[in-house]
Amino acid sequence: MIFIEAGTRSLRTFDAQLIFADQLHARGFNVCIDAEYLPKDAGRGRVYDAAKFLVDPDEHEVERVFVLGAEEIDDLLLESLRQRQLAADVPVVATGRFETQQSYISAKARLAYALGREATVLDLTEFQPRSMLPSAACPLVADIRPTARSAVEMPSVAVVLGSMELDAPETLSCLSRMSNRSDYTLQLIVNGAQNKVINESPFHDLPTILYTDLSARILANTTDVLVMFGHGVAGVRMAALAVELIATGGVAIDCTDDEAIVSSGAPALIGPKTPLALDGYLTGKILENLAGVAEQATKSQWLHSVDISRLEKAADLMPRKREPIRTAQRTVFFPTNGVGLGHAQRCAIIAKELPDDVAPIFAAFPSCVPLVLREGMDSIPLVQRTEVSANFNGNDILTYRRLGAALQENDRLVFDGGYVFDSVYRTILERNLSAVWIRRGLWPDGRSRPRMLQREAVFDKVIVPSEAFEELNDTYSYGDHVRNVGPIFRHVVQSDDERQGLRHRLAERFGRDFDHLVVSMLGGGVASDRSAQLQAISGMLEDRSDCLHLVVTWPGSKVQPATFGWSNTHVVQTFEATTLCLAADLVISAAGYNSVLEILYNKIPAILIPQSAPYLDNQERRAQALADRDLCAIITEKEFMKLERTVSDCLDQGDLEVYRTALNKIELPEAGAAKAAEIIAEAKYRK
Amino acid sequence: MSALEAINSSVRPKIAYIIEPRFSGGTSAAVAAELRVAVDFGTLEVHAITSRTFGENQFVAPALRQVLDELHIPLIWDAPRISADYVILHNPSFLKFNEALNTKIFARDLIVVTHENFLRPGGEEGFDVSGCLNQIEASSFVLRRTLAPISPHNRQTVNDWLASSRLARQWRVRDTDWFNICHADISPPCEKPQDRRGRHSRPGFEKFPSLSDLDMCFPEHSQSNVILGADAMLNAGVLRAHWTLLPFDAISVDEFFGMIDFYVYFTASTWQESFGRVVTEALAAGKVVLTNPETGANFGDAVLTCHPGDVDRIISDLVADPQRYQEQVSRSQKVLERYSAESFKAMLSNVLTADSGVVK
Fold this sequence. Notes:
The structure holds 2 protein chains of 2 kinds.
Chain A: E1 2-6, H1 11-26, E2 31-34, H2 44-51, E3 54-55, E4 64-68, H3 75-84, E5 92-96, H4 101-115, E6 120-123, H5 124-127, E7 156-160, H6 169-179, E8 185-190, H7 192-199, E9 208-210, H8 216-221, E10 225-228, H9 235-247, E11 251-254, E12 269-270, H10 278-286, H11 290-297, H12 302-305, H13 308-314, E13 331-335, H14 342-351, E14 360-364, H15 369-374, E15 379-381, H16 394-406, E16 412-416, H17 422-431, E17 434-438, H18 449-453, E18 461-465, E19 482-485, H19 496-510, E20 516-521, H20 531-542, E21 547-553, E22 569-573, H21 577-583, E23 586-589, H22 593-601, E24 606-608, H23 619-628, E25 633-634, H24 643-652, H25 655-665, H26 673-682
Parallel strand pairs in A: 1-2, 1-4, 2-3, 4-5, 5-6, 7-8, 7-10, 8-9, 10-11, 11-12, 13-14, 13-16, 14-15, 16-17, 17-18, 18-19, 20-21, 20-23, 21-22, 23-24, 24-25
Helix pairs in contact in A: 1-9, 3-4, 14-26, 16-17, 19-21
Chain B: H1 3-11, E1 14-19, H2 26-38, E2 43-48, H3 62-71, E3 75-77, E4 81-90, E5 104-114, H4 129-139, E6 140-149, H5 152-163, E7 172-173, E8 196-200, H6 211-217, E9 224-228, H7 231-236, E10 244-246, H8 253-258, E11 262-265, H9 277-284, E12 288-291, H10 293-296, E13 304-305, H11 311-320, H12 322-335, H13 341-351
Parallel strand pairs in B: 1-2, 1-4, 2-3, 4-5, 5-6, 6-7, 8-9, 8-11, 9-10, 11-12, 12-13
Helix pairs in contact in B: 2-3, 2-13
């Protein structure tokens, strides 16, 4: 392992460690960073960046040590080097920008005192006499790829606002207009303060990412034109981005007050000093000539000064090409854990429809793993989010690591969920995956659509499983990549004999003959607590000697202890909920996507009780659509007092027959699982 | 001024010292002792230079302050020009972060006392020697420039550095050492030595050997191990149950020497003491000193030179033979006479006299 150290410990130097570690990693080196370097206030993005590099140094053999920012070396570094007692054959290389000969000598001497031998100290001012950011602790270098990027249909323009204040109202208004242009896509790279201003403004839908949301290398991969405003270059991440972008054939436009990029000798264009003039400059002068501008940049001598191979040579490093572990493409399904196991079930239904030459595996949370295994597919276990940890996204960082380990370049990731986690977003970009997003509709009111869709661009295809009724199929985004398919649900066939046999076994199992089997299936997911509703239903059915009431949940779901206190209510945890529902006279169900489709397509009479919670889709609209067609009864949140009467109407007044009749008559769209599987199998990496 | 004083004054040379008075270690202590001797040779001026090495403040090391007060010599800060028969500049490394010496020096003889080694073991530069000497050369109008090493090892590094430098022709090197005056009270050795080991130094990393060497020098089985100046180890949590780690200045040097019988002093292999003032302090305190051959070379048979792996054996032999312990201490303390004020006075008299080779 190559250990990347820093002369001092701060956010600035940690960024430098991350950038350089990422660059060396991409060049085929095994690199790591001592976990002690992780700053307490690292922030979300840096933690993701760091996750793959942080190690306990005692667990790894040191092959080489690389010290960044050696112009300033503190005792912590020296003591840690001394404590490691490195073998004499472990090279130690330090880089720094030394303003004087004395600072070079001091750095060399201090390292020598701690090591008991001399380190190789490289003065970056010799490599880069005019640095884009002299305060950068890392070498601002890149893997030079000599060919310019091929012409792109819709160039991606990233604008770094730098130190710009956003107090002038016309600035955001102008950026907003630019974000709606059809000849380029706009992304704003902002700091925390700017992000806050934007979020609190009428232009909160502007596409923004923070400096730390992605590594400079990945950001450069997804950017064609980089525009930088403000005074100077906004920190080491943005400097690394500019260098990486130019080195990989992108176009940099220097709009900084002090022409910070151009004055370093970099082949950037000098652009307008205000965003108000940027759109005209881009559309009038740049976008049509992108290839030519990039071609000119490849001839610049400056590229030589940022060539990472020069640094590698000086440090006696031999880059290694990282060979893929597998030759066959892998398809990984990652269902999120929302309400119940709906996402996992939908993915399993689609996965089973895939062609034989695609052998999918799952990356699933513990609650979903048994379901996946039961369907005959393998699963990488993920870790459920926990309320106990102060680190709210700690589990997603682990997911990121596991997805990263499971997937290699050009593999395929199928994500089913509403919110695209950082783990998913980053893994797709970092591994150049072919990616498919299964995105159900009926988002709840008030959810910011642009925010939800901001990461859609990383997916090659978006599969939208439709609802049963057209009025429920809202459209959230457009494009050739968005593909609507029919409803995806689990279809179970049950003969009369099977139904009667099951009812008989239930009577035996629970020691109770019954005329009416009532199944309550209000979901077992993480989003909402339905214990009060279950208690009410159980209480109502407690004295009915003609009924057997089963509360059906997925195995592993949380069940409130009070549910077990009724003599006529029994909790059944099973993957065969649909089979029980088919055997029931009445199902009382939440109105989730899967449950409703199963009720509809399997023609099961039901009372729907729509649930509402921040993560949930709009269940009330879905339930109402059925009720409007006399396909079920509905009890909304405000009508809960109607429950007893509605159950009685169903069991005693013949309403069940009304629903059965309507269910038998209704025409439903064709199921979409096979089509979804076809789209997935054809999905190709777009970039 | 009386006629006699006037006559005396006219024959007493003017001697100007240029110092960075904020050095807190051996340099300031050496200069302080030297001023007491030099005052007999002429009229003294002491000039302080504010260097970037120590920032903007005008702190004065206590040892220096005390001597200046005793001798009633004002400390002149950052004079634009200094004129004297002899200008003695101590420790040119204080200029290492400066771009220029903004004081013009006019003198017959400029003597630069090289407290710090020009080269480290292995041949790397100890500091930006060219930068410092160039600043002095550019600011001085003198008949002769001399580098005055303070020890044989220091001399070696100066000569080795000059051998590969274009500056060599601008400087001559004194052929006798401008040693540090060590005037500590001499204490007798203890009657019955015990395996009580210790070391003290400033806390810099250069002053400490590798951890494995430290472990060999201060093992679990010794009766006690006291390390004074262990600030970096304390900060980093490098602890051993059998070590007593104390920050620099946590106790007085006298208290420290009261806790040990053997002074075991090894440094980073990439650094070496130019003189080894700490060694002379230990010798004066009546302790047996064990150190590496390179540091020991300045002191002849006054110290026991060895490698960390030999320390245990040497100490156990001497603990078993108190007579030998006492003989070793007695022998070593005689060496201290070499570094007395009287010896220095004799050395200085050869420099600051008419027949010292100064061109008139």
